[in-house]
Amino acid sequence: xxxxxxxxxxxxxxxxxxxxxxxxxxxxxxxxxxxxxxxxxxxxxxxxxxxxxxxxxxxxxxxxxxxxxxxxxxxxxxxxxxxxxxxxxxxxxxxxxxxxxxxxxxxxxxxxxxxxxxxxxxxxxxxxxxxxxxxxxxxxxxxxxxxxxxxxxxxxxxxxxxxxxxxxxxxxxxxxxxxxxxxxxxxxxxxxxxxxxxxxxxxxxxxxxxxxxxxxxxxxxxxxxxxxxxxxxxxxxxxxxxxxxxxxxxxxxxxxxxxxxxxxxxxxxxxxxxxxxxxxxxxxxxxxxxxxxxxxxxxxxxxxxxx
Length: 307
Fold this sequence. Notes:
This protein has about 300 residues and is mainly alpha-helical. It has helices at about 1-35, 40-55, 55-60, 100-135, 135-150, 155-165, 170-180, 180-195, 200-205, 210-250, 260-265, 275-300. The chain has a single domain (about 40-65, about 95-305), classed as MetI-like (MetI-like fold, Orthogonal Bundle).
């Protein structure tokens, strides 16, 4: 009796050890591939730095991001004539520290970028799986909905909706999510149409597996890698869209701060005080490039089409 009860436990322990070793070896493989990719490593460092900056923003800001001081307005960066080490990147037209505002602005830019991608991804993934798996009239309805969204330029669609419902932070996240889901739906549908014709899916259907089990166990795991790649790259696109909306006055509003709003505030001072708009623009550029570099590496690792 003792031998019979111990044997399953030993087998379970062996399975767990094998699973742990497999996971560990996969992680090491990913790390090696990341270190081999210079752009992937640079992208990861940039993304991690921006995320840490956003998380600890309130602890590392040298000054208040919203406190105005007209006496210190338009002070240039510290290395220029008239600059001050107190304001490393200078001040804006209201005497607010640009470095502090960039640090705080990272919170809004990342929050909007990641949250809207989650909203868009959830909608697109669900509709793409349904459309590709069931086909027929369901596919036709969803694809015509996709076509109607593609017929209207995203930025114009966003401007119209925000002009109607207002420009609060939740509204911006919702609008960006609702207007950018089509790229996920089309990709997931395309992958699903191919995967559902494979032998293991047909076998699962033949032994009586229901639709939900087939989708969740056999189709979703095979489309999720491509989905992650597109979602990562679209965080960068969403950050740019949010900055564009804020620049046009229909995005983040004062006293909140975002990089796009800082660009809008500094556009009238480009000729005389270039730093007011340049440094927020650099923050957007560096962050977007970092996400793109990381997304390209993820595509090389996860997308089976590139292997």
